[in-house]
Amino acid sequence: MNDPLLAFASLLTPEGRALLDEVRGTDPAQELAVATRLRREHPAELVSAALGQARLRQRAAAKFGAEDAERMYFTPNGVEQSTRASVATYRARCFRALGPRSVADLCCGIGGDAIALARAGIRVLAVDRDPLTAAVARANAEALGLGELIEVREADVTEVDTDGYDAVFVDPARRGGRGRIFDPEAYSPPLSWAVETALKAPHAALKVAPGIPHEAVPEAAAAEWISDGGDVKEAVLWFGTDPGTVRATLLPGPRTLWGRGLPDPDVRPVGRYLYEPDGAVIRAHLVAEVAEDLDGGLIDPTIAYITADALVLTPYATAYEITDQLPFNVKKLKALLREREVGVLTVKKRGSAVEPEELRRKVKPQGPNSATVFLTRVAGAPTMLVGRPA
Ligand SMILES: C[S@@+](CC[C@H](N)C(=O)[O-])C[C@H]1O[C@@H](n2cnc3c(N)ncnc32)[C@H](O)[C@@H]1O
Question: pTM of the full predicted structure?
Answer without folding.
Answer: 0.95
